[in-house]
Design goal:
By secondary structure, the protein is mostly beta strands. Helices cover 8% and strands 41% of the residues.
Amino acid sequence: MSTADEVVRIMAANISSGTNQSYDGGEGSRIFDGLNPDIALVQEMNVGSNSVTNYNSWVSTNFGAGYTYFVETGKNIPNGIVTRYPILEADVWNDPEISDREFVWARIDLPGDKNLLAVSVHFKASSGGTNETRRNNQAVALNGFIAGEVEATDYLVIGGDFNTYSRNSSVEPCLGTLSSRVVVASPWPADQAGNTNTNASQSSPYDWVMPGPSLAALATPLVIGPNTHINGLVFDSRDYTPLSAVAPVLSGDSGATGMQHMAVMRAFLIPTNDPPVITQGTAVAVTLSRNNTPTAFSRSLNATDGDGNPLAWSIATPATNGTAGVVAPATGGTVALSYVPALNYVGTDSFVVQVADGQGGTDTITVNLTISSPPNTAPVITQGTSAAVTLSENNTPVAFSRSLSASDADEDPLAWTISTAAANGTAGIVAPATGGTVVLSYVPALNYVGTDSFTVQVTDGRGGSDVVTVNLTVEEPPNQVPVITGTEVVVVTLTQNGFPVAFQQVLAAADADADPLSWSVTVPGDHGTASVVVPASGGSVVLAYQPVAGYLGNDSFTVGVSDGRGGSDSVVVQVVIEAAPAYDSWTFERFAPLSPEDEGTRWGEDADPDDDGFTNLEEFAHGLDPEVADAASNLMSISREGPGPGSALVLSYKVRMDGAVAALDYSLMASNTLAAGWAVLPAEAYVAIGDADLGGGFRLRTIRLLGGHPTPARFFRLQFARHP
């Protein structure tokens, strides 16, 4: 039993007297005063005119100043409830059998964790006939009302005048009905002589205090003065001793004229809980610094619990401008609190801490906070006042690399800037330029070698700052020579005079330093002219070579590449000038243009060393071997297409269809002398090819030398080659 457990005495009292069934005569009122119940379930609660003033005065006088009550209104013999505990809510339920009173109920705030649903009733009187049935009807209705109102955490008691003539449910079926809600079995209260009946003559058990099972389990002996009543008391002033224990009750009060019944009272030991108490009271003040630096939040709390219950702590109301907590484990009689103010917040704040005992008991305390702004402490760059960095020219091969860090005792947010720029390059801070650590960047001016510096500043946003000078040494790295891609010797093959196979060659080089490269022919050829096609710079170039006219054999020249810093590489280009394959070319020359009056046909080249009837040119075009006799003569012819200067010249020859005819390439040249000065004309502009079927296995091929060439010339040379 806890020292705080409380005995609650509940009385069922239809103890009005006189002819008006009221408490004005004083007898019943004195019994209330003398027995001093904590809760009285009162019947026939008529006092004066039943005004609020009458009731207030009567309750205060006969029960005590701290008591309250609820009574139904508009009824002849109203039911009511008087209690020294707070009434949380109260109302009436309709009595289905009687119109001059209802069932009155109240939810009462008992000590401890549970409330009490108390019901004051006055059932139908008399026995025999239908009265027992009507009382049972009242019980059925009452059970239904209670089912809809009682809560799981409530105790239940029904008390009052049931007008029952027996405690046997076979005689009084209402008892059996009510037993589903309350305990009606023995033991029952009795007077000092052991009589359990309660009507005026004490011949019938009219009046009951019926507890619900959870309340019945808490039944305890009723103690009045020197007397202990094991099962409760049926009070009869006429034989109660010592009467002084129930003063101001008079001996004859229970036998007064019109006294209805005996009062019935039982006691119950209600387990109660003493709430915990926080030692520091209802409020405590704490002063700390912005961002908890340099003065951090520090606070512990203590609490005691009279019942020895285990205690648990929590934040009941959170802080507005920060985060409050209870340091784990948040249990026991002493706990430490935590609080982190919002970043950079300065001002006041508060939060509420609660301690609970697990039995419904709690206590709270408000922690009032003052967050002040301490004197600013400037940030400090960890690397000191200077830092040295060595790097390579153009950041290659050794690139700039440097990071800086700083600390701030106030934990202010830090921002970094370049306060003094570099003179021979570009310095910066890699984003984001905030926080305790940053990465720097620096790009030296192109090809710059020497020293440089720049200054970096860190600030805390509150006027505090620190700087560091970054001293730079930009070194020229050892030169890496360029390297020409491929082998040291390049072989290029072409045909005599560069026709039909011309010289073609491209060279490439790489430079690890990314230096600009320039190319040149360092050793010329002996039998031709070599050069580097403009522009002679960059990572790759095109070479040109023109052999001496008519030269056949080998030649070579050397090409070099330089990085402008003393680094170079070279390659030997070996040139092989070969004669055109046998019968791979033929030249037809027209000596002088046809005169306007000459409209006839001139024969062209008619060489036929194998005497087979085909000219060498025909056999070449036909794909035949000129040394093998193979056909009758079939000469080429040349004619002018029209009268007058500028008309086209037409070369005609037959092609035998059964020969291996090959595709031909044409080269047209013009000159005013036979010895020299031949200029190549674009064949696609001045040569037109025709091909016609002659029948009999032959085709006529025509080559038209068109007029309109840029420079008038006396002589033309047509050279054509068969594809291999």
